[in-house]
């Protein structure tokens, strides 16, 4: 098999987190009764006039600024005509155009950065972000009446993010999709929940014989709605195109779907061209003229973004790159840690507790991260109790298990269970001497230079003290005895 180089681009649709629809006042609500939120505008009755949702425009601009885009202050709406049973209007209002004069999406020419597992940072261009409305939904069931139509989703605001074909492997495609999802969550522009269909990804891929050869013919794979499926679908299509070219055949431009069970892509339709949609400027709308002051206000109130937070965690808290990565990936975990770190004497130790203890317990917890009873200040307090020498690390794990289960304050648990660390040197010395007497033979060997036995003695003393002895003092006493 010859070696080919993949060229990949992504198109990501995300549902904006507005309360109401793109061009009418109908509420956006999922998991409700069918056809509850509809009106003449979103059903496309003749004569009904659409009015753009200001919040949706604000969100699109916020997303554009977070992705370093230029904002078009004179954007345009176009009508994309097509027939489909889930689209009563027979067209979709969008910002793509067919002809360049009609093509004025709200955002253009941005970029984001991804960091590969090998440490290489790559910049991926964002061609454009445009706004549009969603179609309705067909619901198929096994009843004699068959298929049903639910118009609740008609007119829901979407942004489509289109990347440049800058992605060079399925791994980079996954990192790009993850980064976009993360930015959607950090900016609050979308709930970006894949299970609810808030975010959907299409991937296009072509291959070429060398890294500077012209692009090959591409296939577009629709609806890759998990990171795993995106990676597997692109890999399967890469192999298929490789086999095709090796056999002396040509790759056909087409739209495909991916079947995860068979791990195969298959053709849905040969690629449609822009003329098929008969785009024209939307006659019911004027241009979307945006006040520059509105854009500046959004820029000024942009929240901290993932890359900036990652850098802050490295610099301010001295976290390792791995820890900073884990603690910025998911905004909920990140905000939780950040809140805890504010009152913590040792954020680096706190990071360990969040990653190894808290996130491990959360995996087993019904309801996931949202269901945890421990609040950030409590874990911060637990770490401070260790730092202050009130309890040792081993006892802290016991306290943590209790906190996680009950949501009680660490101070209360320590007090109730009498877990305060013993730091009284005389008391510890007494325990050490008891242990030494009981294990006279081993102690003789230890004194004679068998250093490995120190661990045994520390263990025994800790056991006798119910885990409460300060391990540092125990070590000091044993060192003294060995020398003396
Ligand atoms: Zn409506």
From TrEMBL:
Residues 335-481 form the Asn/Gln amidotransferase domain. GO terms for molecular function: asparaginyl-tRNA synthase (glutamine-hydrolyzing) activity; ATP binding; glutaminyl-tRNA synthase (glutamine-hydrolyzing) activity; transferase activity. One of its GO terms (biological process) is translation. Signal peptide: none annotated. It is an enzyme of class 6 (ligase). Belongs to the GatB/GatE family. GatB subfamily. This is Aspartyl/glutamyl-tRNA(Asn/Gln) amidotransferase subunit B. It comes from Hallerella succinigenes. The lineage of its organism: Bacteria, Pseudomonadati, Fibrobacterota, Fibrobacteria, Fibrobacterales.
């Amino acid at each position: 098999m010859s070696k080919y180089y993949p060229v990949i681009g992504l198109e990501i649709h995300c549902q904006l987190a507005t309360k109401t629809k793109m061009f009418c006042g109908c509420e956006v609500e999922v998991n409700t009764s069918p056809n509850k939120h509809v009106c003449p505008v979103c059903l496309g009755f003749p004569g009904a006039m659409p009015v753009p949702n200001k919040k949706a425009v604000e969100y699109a601009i916020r997303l554009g600024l977070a992705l370093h885009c230029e904002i078009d202050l004179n954007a345009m709406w176009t009508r994309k005509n097509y027939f489909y049973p889930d689209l009563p209007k027979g067209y979709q209002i969008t910002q793509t155009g067919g002809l360049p004069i009609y093509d004025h999406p709200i955002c253009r020419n941005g970029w984001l950065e991804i960091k590969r597992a090998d440490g290489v940072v790559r910049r991926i261009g964002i061609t454009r972000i445009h706004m549009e409305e969603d179609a309705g939904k067909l619901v198929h069931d096994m009843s004699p009446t068959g298929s049903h139509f639910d118009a609740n989703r008609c007119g829901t605001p979407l942004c489509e993010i289109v990347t440049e074909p800058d992605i060079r492997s399925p791994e980079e495609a996954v990192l790009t999709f993850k980064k976009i999802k993360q930015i959607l969550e950090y900016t609050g522009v979308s709930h970006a929940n894949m299970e609810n269909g808030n975010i959907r990804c299409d991937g296009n891929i072509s291959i070429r014989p060398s890294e500077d050869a012209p692009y090959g013919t591409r296939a577009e794979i629709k609806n890759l709605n998990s990171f795993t499926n995106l990676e597997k679908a692109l890999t399967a299509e890469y192999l298929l195109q490789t086999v095709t070219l090796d056999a002396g055949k040509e790759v056909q431009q087409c739209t495909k779907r991916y079947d995860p069970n068979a791990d195969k892509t298959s053709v849905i339709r040969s690629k449609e061209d822009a003329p098929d949609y008969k785009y024209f400027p939307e006659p019911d709308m004027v241009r979307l003229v945006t006040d520059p002051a509105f854009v500046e206000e959004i820029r000024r109130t942009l929240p901290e973004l993932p890359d900036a937070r990652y850098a802050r965690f490295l610099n301010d808290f001295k976290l390792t790159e791995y820890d900073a990565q884990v603690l910025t990936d998911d905004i909920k975990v990140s905000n939780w840690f950040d809140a805890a770190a504010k009152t913590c004497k040792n954020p680096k130790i706190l990071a360990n507790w969040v990653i190894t203890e808290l996130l491990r317990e959360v995996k087993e917890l019904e309801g996931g991260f949202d269901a945890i009873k421990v609040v950030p200040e409590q874990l911060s307090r637990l770490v401070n109790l260790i730092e202050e020498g009130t309890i040792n690390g081993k006892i802290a794990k016991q306290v943590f298990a209790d906190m996680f289960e009950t949501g009680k304050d660490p101070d209360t648990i320590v007090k109730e269970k009498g877990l305060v660390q013993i730091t009284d040197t005389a008391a510890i010395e007494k325990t050490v001497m008891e242990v030494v007497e009981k294990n006279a033979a081993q102690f003789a060997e230890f004194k004679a230079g068998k250093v490995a036995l120190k661990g045994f003695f520390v263990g025994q003393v800790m056991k006798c003290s119910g885990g409460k002895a300060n391990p540092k003092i125990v070590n000091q006493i044993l060192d003294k005895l060995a020398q003396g």
